[in-house]
Design a protein that fits this description.
alpha/beta, two-stranded antiparallel ribbon, globular
Length: 312
Amino acid sequence: MCRRVARRAEELGYESLWIADTGAGPDAFVIATAAALDTTTIRLGTAVVPVQTRSPSVMAAQTASVAQLAPGRFVLGIGASSDTIVNRWGGVPFEKPLLRVRETVALLRRMLAGERVTFQGKTLRTEGFRLVAQPPQPVPIYLAALMPPMLELAGEIADGVILNFQPVEAMPRMLEHVAIGAARAGRDPKSLEIVSRFQTVVTDEVDGARTALRMMMGPYFATSVYNRFVAWCGFADEASEILAGWQAKDRGRNMGAVTDAMIDRLAIIGSADECRARLRAFHTAGVTTPMIQPFLFDEAAMWRCFEELARA
């Protein structure tokens, strides 16, 4: 399925293909490898790989391997992830995420440049590591960011920023923090690509799509990272009730707190024309690369989304 999607996306003229790494699904680097072998022009990126679940040396080797198969077409998107994926699932302490991301980027840049690297930081260390084969071309590193500290770090050290689940009204605030970080490093914030994932359903059955999204958003927005984020984006009351329902183990209360208005502002739902209009609004607000993620797992619905939005 992933290989068919990659081939068809390239045929339809999509500029890039972004691959998630959840810690419980297909491995992002394996999928990127498969996509690299079945395509020739489309850009491939991870969106995103948690920095704690792989050491920098392993991530550098994986990145270099994909980059050799897709020279000049691979983007490494990384992020801090969450306590659920890192600590509860992976058994790795979720500590100092901001510093861990900063040190990871510093190490990866040196490793991917082919340097022999010795480093002793506060969250990472390595001694004498050197890649056997470095990427044939430099690999851009993008950072996933939600809240001001990580947005500013992305502006300071990354080649691009990856956003998720923000309403269009939050874009000015988010980009302001990216610009603050860029200014610290003497960089032009407009030089950074702003990528954003959008849960997307092309449908005439809007209520059914909302129900499906609500079932996902309730637990998702109860996690500490996203609960704080959606509150910061203007959904403070909803975030409080979502968390209260989850902590009470009341699934109905948890999902019921995800209102229709909230879903409509955070996801892209409706006819193809309506979805295109929403995507254009985000582009106008500063998203340079909107990333559509067909939400429904029904294969026909997924293909409809890809096909009908290819002209967006």
